[in-house]
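User: We ran a pulldown and think these components assemble together. Before we commit to crystallization trials, I'd like a predicted model of the whole complex to look at. Sequences follow.
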Amino acid sequence: MDALNRADADVRFVAPGLVEIDVQGKPVLIGGCCGGCGARSFPRALVCTECMSEDIEPVALGTEGTLYSYSVVHQAPKGWRVPYVVGYVDLPDNVRVFAHLDADPKTLAIDMPVTLATGVVADDASGAALSSYVFKPL
Amino acid sequence: MRDVCVIGTGMIPFGKYPEKTLADLGWPAVKEAIVESGVPPKKIDAVYCGSALGGMLSGQRVMKALGITGMSIINIENACSSSSSALAEAWTAVASGRHDIVVVIGVEKLTKFGGGTLPLEREDWEVNQGQVMPAVYAMRAKRYMHEYGLTDRQLAEVSVKAHDHGALNPNAQIRKRVTVEEVMAARPVAEPFTLWHCCPTGDGAAALVIAAADVARAYRTNAVRVVASEVTSGLYTNGHRDMTWAELSARGAHEAYEMAGVSADDIDVAEIHDAFTIAELMYYEAFGFCERGHGYELMNSGATSLGGRICVNPSGGLLSRGHPVGATGAAQAVEIVRQLEGRAGAHQVEGARVGLSHATGGGIAGLDHGACSIHIFAR
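Assistant: Here's a predicted model for the assembly, 517 residues in total across the polymer chains.
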């Protein structure tokens, strides 16, 4: 977990704390693992919602999951690149992640396996591209 | 706890009033409710005002326009349940004996945001990743369609039903009927929803005067009683959740039925939170009007339309009457009271004696919804 954000300096993330790039250049979602009860959280919680422990270590979450549901968004606040595809991805250890999906919606199906990647999802106020973690069909 | 009655109702037609202030939206509804009640303004013990996005001191801004000030005025924000939560707090204040006569206000002006999806809190991590309210419901719809075989066309029929009712309601924001073909061909918002699957944004205000039953007798005979009043919040998890089941609303319904001593079979008319088409079908199931997965079947039977055994959203609901967020709960309560008093006009549910109102919402990561408030009324 120490070779963090070493990726291309010109990639800017919407929420830099949620995703890191490992030494192989692959994205990893950073969740939390409670030292008190082992519960997982994403984003990493400051206090555990199961046992109120504040001893929560960062943990790399699994990079593969299943697509619980999805939608194609056509109307969104300024900055988002509409239309865009979003979904809920169920990861192991009972974690559900809301994410952009990098896929032609016609190829998507509920419960299909998906894998983690990154991609451009928005533009900031100056028009510069913003990236985030995304999932795509495996 | 004392019995609580509704002795006055007021609302303005929901719509778009960009030139009006929040206070100018609100005072006509409050005045109508007070005049209808016959209560002298000096007898009003407290005001509870619900508004999600109205800003500070919404209640004071409305009440000072009428020159009725000095009493306790409490402002309540609870997203889409703001004014139903205000009603619940008002109910508690009267039932407990703290106050005798209380005014409830719901008021909201969404046109100040210039249209588009409801502004959500960017501190929420899902919102920060591009979550919007239509997508929350759209993902529920997709999963529900996957699990129960509901089709795009069947889902579109929910919108047709809502607008058939709203066309009869002079207070509805949208009084146009739509066909299944129009619904399906409209511009997409968040698939599977087109524009007609989504409640419109707009402005509105509604108000009620409630009173302890023994006090109410001085102003009104046979007043509608509030027999259940409750507010619940969503259960947090960042884990897997069944999005085809409205857990929060089902839990609230159970509590409300228990408090009122009634069951789903006793409900004649209901105003439920159909912010998007799928919500109406899921809430039929949450309220026990039908079994899980049978929402469309119930609607298709005609049971939930005017003339059916349990008319749902005779006002047109959020889809047609409109959904100025914080004003919705009070408007639903006004509608149910007028239905039970037999004065709803062209969209009257004949012989309605027991009705419920249900406002839930708030897009917040990890919760089904932020809040849910349910009231049951009886004649």
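The beta strands of chain A are 19-21, 27-34, 40-41, 56-60, 64-73, 84-91, 95-101, 113-123, 129-137. That may be worth checking against your pulldown data before setting up trials.

User: Thanks, that helps.
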